Each structure stands twice: as C-alpha cells, then as structure tokens.
Amino acid sequence: MAYKRHIDRLPIIPADAKKQNVTCHYCIVGCGYHAYTWPSNKQGGTDAASNAFGVDLSEQQPAETDAWYAPSMYNIVKQDGQDVHIVLMPDKDCEVNSGLGSVRGARMGELRYSTARGSQQQRLTSPMVWRYGQMQPTSWDDALDLVARVTAAVVKDQGEDGLFVSVFDHGGSAGGYENTWGTGKLYFGSMKVKNIRIHNRPAYNSEVHATRDMGVGELNNCYEDAELADTIVSVGNNPLETQTNYFLNHWIPNLRGTSMEKKRAQLPDEAHASGRIIFVDPRRTVSVNAAEAEAGKDNVMHLAINSGTDMVLFNAWLTEIADEGWVDKAFIDASTKDFDKALAANKTTLEDAAKITGLSVDQIRQSAAWIAEPKEGKRRRTMFAYEKGLIWGNDNYRTNAALVNVALATGNVGREGGGCVRMGGHQEGYVRPSDAHVGRPAAYVDKLLIEGKGGVHHIWACDHYKTTLNAHQFNMVYKKRTDIVKDAMNAVPYGDREAMVKAITDAIKAGGLFSVDVDIIPSKIGAASHVWLPAAESGEMNLTSMNGERRMRLVERYMDPPGNAKPDCMIAAGLAQHMEKVLREMGDNAYADQFKGYDWKTEEDAFMDGYNKNAGGGEFVTYERLKAMGNNGFQEPATAFEDGKIVGTKRLYTDGKFGTKDGKATFMEAQWRGLQAPGKEEQKKNNKYLINNGRANQVWQNAFLDQESAFVMDRWPFPFIEMSPDDMAELGVKNGDLVEVYNESGSTQAMVYPTPTARKGETFMLFGFPTGVQGNVINAGTNELILPNYKQTWANIRKISDAPEGVKHLSFKSQEYQAG
Ligand SMILES: Nc1nc2c(c(=O)[nH]1)N[C@H]1C(S)=C(S)[C@@H](COP(=O)(O)OP(=O)(O)OC[C@H]3O[C@@H](n4cnc5c(=O)[nH]c(N)nc54)[C@H](O)[C@@H]3O)O[C@H]1N2
Ligand SMILES: Nc1nc2c(c(=O)[nH]1)N[C@H]1C(S)=C(S)[C@@H](COP(=O)(O)OP(=O)(O)OC[C@H]3O[C@@H](n4cnc5c(=O)[nH]c(N)nc54)[C@H](O)[C@@H]3O)O[C@H]1N2
Ligand code: SF4
Ligand SMILES: [Mo]
C-alpha cells in the first residue's frame, strides 16, 4: 500500500531528535510507543553517531532489528506552530508489547492531522454553528455562548432532566482521566444530570454489574497471568483482532511453550510445558485459527455454542466441577459466601446443557476438566477472559455472574496464572463525582429521546447513528427533531442572540431538540447537530489512562491540535464558565455559583483537580512522576511513592479480601431463561439469519479516522458480512455482492465475504461502519439494567447488486493461516 502513501524514501531519525513517551490510544492493550520529532529541514545520517538508533545503517540490519520504521509510522505535523517530522514507533522496552505494533497502532503516524501531507483533513479546526442553512466556523466564545444560553434556558424551563448527555467513560481514544473528570465535574458536580448515557450503551450503568456486585472488580489480574496459566478460557472474545498485542505477546508465548522458560523461577513447583486454551464463541475466529496453528489442535478447544447460551455452559461447568470434587474448598471457605446456594440454584446437567448450547456432553465434560482437574495433585491455574460476546450477549448480568462463579469455585481470582477479567475495549480512565443520583436501573436515554423527551443534547465523542441499538429508528426521530430546530434557526438572523435563543426554545417546545456535538471530525450524528465543538486527540494534549492490567501511563503531548481544537476537559471548563456567566445574567446567582472551579489553565490542572484528589491512590500520582515511570508506568491503584517511583498493585485480591462489605466474594444465582431481551425470540422466529456482529483487525471502532485511510477503505469499502457458501448459493450471491440486511426494526447493507467456516444460517457483520450500520437491525430490547444485546440479532438478507466497481479489486481469500 506504500504506493498510495506517495513515499519514495523516509528520513533517518537524527540522534538529537526529541523522544517522548506515547501509549497507543486505540485499544485497551495500551502498547508503548515513542514519538520522535525533529525539524522538517533536517535528517539523521547512516553512521551510528548521527541516527537515533545508534547503529550503522549503511550495513544490512538483522531480521528482528528495531532500527527501522514503516511509512505508516511517519508524518509531518505541527509542533509549537512549526512543521516537524514525526515517527510514532513501538517501544521494545515496554512490557506490554515488547516492540510489537499492530495494523492499527502502527498507523498512528499516518492518521495524524497534517497540513503538509494532507492527512486527516476531515479534522475540525474551529467551532462550527448552524448559520444560513449550513455549518459555519465561529469563535469559541460565540459557540459556547449559544450552547450555554440554550442549555440554561432549557434547564430553567424543564429542570436538569431536560438536558440529555451522551459521553465517553473511558481512557485512550477520546476520554482519559483529564476528560472524564472535566465532563464528570460538569454533569455530576455542577449539575446532577440523570438523563445521561455512555458512548457504547443507552444508559449510564456498568457493562459488568454482576461481577462488581459479587465483589470482584473486572480488571483483577495482570498480563503476565496469561503467560502463567495452565488453561486460558476466552469467552466471546476475538483477541487476535481486538486485543492484538496482548494476545501475541502474552498468550501465544504460553501456547507455544516459550513463556514458562523465563517464568519458571516464579512458580518453581508448577511449571508446565505449554498452556491450553478454550474459546467459547459461536463462530470460528482467526484467534482460534492462530491458537491452533501455534499450540497444535490438541491444546485448543473451540466450543461453538448456540448464540446466547453461554450461561447454561457455565452452570454446567460449575455443576460438573463440584460433582468431580475439583473446587477449591479452602478458598471458598475463607474468602467467599453463598457457594452452596448458588450451586443448588444453578445446577445444570451435562445433558441439559448439551441440548441448549448445541455442544456435546463430551465437549462440556472435557472443557470442565481442562479448567479444573488437578494436575499431579496440584490445583490447575486457569485464567478466564471475556468481552463483548458475553457483555453484549443474552442476559448479560446473570451470564457474567455464572462465569465469575466458576472462577471463584476453582480459586482462580487473586492468584498467579488466574483472574476472571474482561479483556476490555478502550483503555480505562474513569474519575468522576458520584453518579448515585442516576439510580438503578438508569434511564434508557435513547428511548426517551425517541419519545420526544429532552430539549438539549450534548454529545461527547460518540456517534449513535453508527453504534447504538435500534439505530434506524433513533436516526429517523433524531433527524426529525433536530430539523425542527434548524428550520427555526433559519428564520432569524444569527447575530440577534436573543431572537435566536427564543426561536430555538420555541422549536424545542414544539418537539424539537437542540444538539451539540463535541468531536474531532464531522460525524454522522453531527450532521443533525447545531453546534460542533472541535476536540484535541491523545498526543495533541497530555493524556493519562490505564490499560487492561491497570497499567497507567502519560501520553506526552507531541504535536499541536488542529487549528483551534481543545482538549475535552478544557471544552467542559469553557462550557461551565459560560453557564456561570449566563446564569448570573439571568439573576440566578446561587445556581451560577455551582459552575465555579473550572479555572484550569491546562489539562494538567484538570488532572490535579480530578485524579490526584479523587482517585484511590491518586495523591501519589503527578505528571512529573508518571513521565519518569515511562512506558511501563505503574499498575493502579498506587499505594506509595518511594525511591522516586510510584508503587503500584500487580494483582488485586491477593489477600483473599474482596470488594464487599464483609470482604467476601459472593456467589450468585443465575438461572437460564432463554433469550431474555424483549422481542428477541420473535425476531429469531421471524427471520432466517443470525446477524452476529463485531470487529475486524484493520478497523478502529466506527472508522472515524479510517474512513480517510486508503489502506482501510481499499480493504473494506463496505462492511463485510461473513456467510457460509451454502447460504450464498441459496441466496444466489457471489463474492463482494451487496446485500440488504432487513427485519422489523430496520435495514442496512453489507458486502458478502465467503466464509467456509461459517455455520449455515449464521453470519457475522462488521459493526458500526459508515457505509452500512449493523445497529439498524438490532431491536430496542435490553436487560433489566438497560444493557443492550447487540450480538443476538436475526434478520433476512436479499441481494441488492453485483459487486460494485469499488469492490472488484478485493481479495476474498480465507483469512485463516497454516502453521509455518
Ligand atoms: N481491531 C479492533 N480492535 C478493537 C476494537 C476495534 O474497533 N477494532 N474495539 C475495541 C473495543 S471498544 C471493544 S469493546 C473490544 C471488543 O472486543 P471483542 O469482544 O473481542 O470483539 P467483538 O468482535 O465485538 O466480539 C467478540 C466475539 O463475540 C462473539 N459472540 C457473538 N455472540 C456470542 C455469544 O452468544 N456467545 C459468545 N461466547 N460469543 C459471542 C463474536 O462471534 C465475536 O467473535 O475490542 C476493542 N479492540
Ligand atoms: N452492533 C454493534 N454495536 C455496537 C457494538 C457491537 O459490538 N455491535 N459495540 C459497542 C461498543 S463496545 C462500543 S465501544 C461502541 C462504540 O461506539 P461509539 O463510541 O459511538 O464509537 P467510536 O467509534 O468509539 O466513536 C468515537 C467518536 O468520538 C470521536 N473522537 C475520537 N477522539 C476524540 C476525542 O479525543 N475527543 C472527542 N470529543 N471526540 C473524539 C470520533 O471522531 C468518533 O466520532 O459501539 C457499541 N455499539
Ligand atoms: S494492540 Fe491496541 S494498543 Fe497495541 S498497538 Fe494495536 S491498537 Fe494500539
Ligand atoms: Mo467498546
């Protein structure tokens, strides 16, 4: 693809280039990188003294050298207003990735905003407002004044429940401790906003309520545990594509049998040759393929369960493990409660489980043995990892509980080589004032918006048009409501603020909605908005977050944000300041006073106001100390600052004390009740194909940056839908044909990707893509806690057209590989 990057040769990084710490912001893994920058009119030389690698580059380098970088890691960006070369390359000394990049992270360079090289010209550079029938640039003061006046008017009229908010709760790509604090202080400190939702689900709640209610925080182990485990259990998770370097750098070495060599010293009595792995996933993923190729088929079990039946499998495991006497009785007695109760309530025979899950009795029995059968009289070390196949799966709360039950029963929480963890999506970075006023269950925000509730909607770093459930209906209603306000705005001169605000609030009373989108690009939902506020990304600001083993790092600001874009925390501060001013003008001094305390000059001030004062162990953490901890950082929570270092916590619960009042982890009852979310059973009955959905290695999230990357759009001009050759024959479709996917909830389109391993009637579609939104066919049904069930979706499929021109160059080869 280098030919499309118009790169003939790349400059050599000079020895005196500036070198900064960077954590890749795209996924939970949080790989360490370095940013090298140097003036655009300079470059290094081949002799060892004049390049950053300190090696003689005129010599052929060995195969595994790190004295190189790829075109995708390079760009020219602005730093303090000057053009500089930049190289963002993996750090071999970072324990997370040991120098590995990925098809996403290794493209951070080319996905930076560059006026010199024309990349990411879609980035917003000024606040934009609806003026004379289109979005037009304006100043921060003007845009924030309008937002504050409309917001204040709505809150005065409807109370704070009239303000709806959609906001990130994570670290890394958008989010970070600075920004979750900025937005949190505004909506939960200054205000008590109740109609608020998180970027990836339609309410303000936990994705993993059950494990927390049981006293087991969801990120309780460390990446090294995957190297130490005898058995890894991966549930609803495709780690090669979605947590790439965690899988490649920590799971594969175990499966290959290479990690124990160096780890043997830590577990002297328990060394094993190589680990085994169990995947629970209705579909055969490339992770299963990679594990088989690297560990041999004998060490890999793929349990291709019927979609949505995980809970039954876990209950059968619990029953079988208890029947065999493989439970960790000492641990259960000392550190848990309600084991007997849950065991009795969840009792599931192997035969019943086989019937519901579609697995064989032998598969269930054998997998239980891999999990818990003692080896030479010693307890087996088993790590349980789960992600969106469970989290966005049927009956999320109880299924989550049923898996944690198995981990607790086998004594695998708080021990080396164990853990019961979510794999994670984004990095984490949550620090906010209490959200207790939101209540449980939290408000189903999408539903309220569709019903016409609310007057103003603030959106931070999410695009519901592409990524919510019931998206087709959401989008139609949202457009209608925001159009009412646009039409009203068109009727008055923009400069007449009083008349403008009156026109807007009148339109709101007539069913309209005023929409403010804080994003880095013009998004799909943003097309409906009246104000866009341009945010800075990671690297354009200093940003802290933690990865899936609670490893906290600081990404140092290595370039300027585009134009007038600002960090999200500073945008929140600006909004608060304008609210204060407007409310004072309105004569409400008491309310205005609640918006004080945002006089941060930089994101570091927001960090000190938020994380340092409010996070557990936060008092030990400052930017300067984090910077000194480099790309290995420390693992949260911090417990001390000693000898110039922040002292962290490698694993949680090693003392056998859990996050409940009495310190005992609690087993939970979880009984099977079929497809739980309203409407799912009917949908399954009425439609022919399972539309399983999720991610692909090359694409980051809803492709907000990738949609301007030739590399990605050449590969996936349309979202793929993996389909078995039998289904293709029945539908009369060929490779690359465009099909419509439709049901009672809506319709969307996708491109047929032949997949010989796919089961008949079971497809898998790329989620959240700009040229075809899978969420359009997901119904509105959620569980009692308003957790969406994206994965269990059924629809019909019909052909739209033969492969369009832009698809003809694609390869439709199998994505599987053979061991070399
Ligand atoms: N390349 C890439 N990596 C990413 C992301 C990305 O956009 N691109 N996004 C990040 C984010 S935010 C997240 S949340 C994570 C998600 O990471 P994952 O959860 O690993 O990814 P998904 O593809 O959403 O779903 C995982 C698997 O769930 C399976 N599944 C579907 N239904 C069921 C079921 O009923 N039971 C079981 N057991 N499995 C089922 C699917 O077949 C799929 O293989 O990825 C993160 N990493
Ligand atoms: N069908 C289906 N739907 C799903 C899922 C699924 O598996 N299947 N998974 C769900 C999951 S796990 C997730 S995480 C969501 C993702 O859903 P979203 O959160 O809606 O998707 P993202 O692609 O993460 O959106 C990020 C948005 O923030 C903007 N952005 C990026 N950086 C910044 C920043 O620094 N500041 C600001 N202000 N904006 C920024 C981007 O331009 C983009 O518009 O989708 C959910 N929806
Ligand atoms: S695995 Fe995740 S964090 Fe690591 S380089 Fe890839 S996208 Fe970035
Ligand atoms: Mo996610």
TrEMBL record:
Q: From what superkingdom does this record's organism come?
A: Bacteria
According to the entry, every stretch annotated as the Molybdopterin dinucleotide-binding domain falls at 691-782
Pfam families (UniProt xref): Molybdopterin (PF00384), Molydop_binding (PF01568), Rieske_3 (PF18465)
Q: What class of enzyme is it?
A: oxidoreductase
GO molecular function per UniProt: arsenate reductase (azurin) activity; iron-sulfur cluster binding; metal ion binding; molybdopterin cofactor binding; NADH dehydrogenase activity
Which residues does the UniProt record annotate as the domain Molybdopterin oxidoreductase?
123-576
Query: Which keywords, in A-to-Z order, does the entry hold?
Result: Iron, Iron-sulfur, Metal-binding, Oxidoreductase
* A GO BP entry: respiratory electron transport chain
Any idea where the Arsenite oxidase subunit AioA/Iodate reductase subunit IdrA 3Fe-4S cluster domain is?
24-118
- Annotated Gene Ontology cellular component terms: membrane; oxidoreductase complex
E.C. number(s) listed in UniProt: 1.20.9.1
Return the NCBIfam families for the record: arsenite_ox_L
| Protein name in UniProt | Arsenite oxidase large subunit
Organism equals Mesorhizobium metallidurans STM 2683
Ranked from the top, the taxonomy reads: Bacteria, Pseudomonadati, Pseudomonadota, Alphaproteobacteria, Hyphomicrobiales
